[in-house]
Fold this sequence. Notes:
Elements: H1 2-41, H2 47-54, H3 58-62, H4 67-87, H5 97-114, H6 116-123, H7 135-156, H8 164-184, H9 191-213, H10 223-226
Amino acid sequence: MSETGGKTQTAVDGRSTRWQDHKRQRRAEVLDAALAVIADSGAEISVQQIADHLGLPRPVVYRHFDGRADLDEQIRHRIQESLLAEVMPTLRTDGSVRDAVRGAVGTYVGWVERHRNLHRFLTGDAADGDGSHGLGGARDRIGGRLADLFAAALSVYDIDPHRARPMAFGVIGLVDGVVNSWRSAPATLTSEQVVGMLTESILALFEGNARSLGVPLGRDTPVADLLTPPAAVPHPA
């Protein structure tokens, strides 16, 4: 009996695992289809459009989510991960301050230009949804990374690292405001002009704050030097 029972349990577990795998795969297919429909048709989409894209009945789409609000949250989460996968790797410590700013800003603006409808959907956080899956969540993660970098640099110069977070999110707010305004009227400026304007504005902000705090920051200063104690930074012979 015990051997038979073990085989039965194994069979049940196997079917359960296959069903869970199927559900995960179908959810992923629905989300992929949703992003494709948004990209083609705009941020205002229906579940029927997603079902039609997949060639499935509408109830099958709903079967894998806890209603429309849950579906929308999962779509935002998928879009957010796509955005962060491009932007987060640019927040690194190699290159000059100018290179770092232009690289991060250019990557973000480029993503928005290529995915205008996805960005528009991402900004439409539902009032009763989980804001961590919308653009606000992306801002929090990018701003948090910037704050960590700023705090590390301030600590090197014995400056209160609590200044870092307001500075970081001030930069995020500047970028967000300019990009959202440009997105609403994209014909007014090219993406290159937006990147150039934001880069110059952020560099001026950095230079002004650094000067007031006594931090030797210039546009061509290597970022790594700002994270290294002054006595340890090698100087040319």
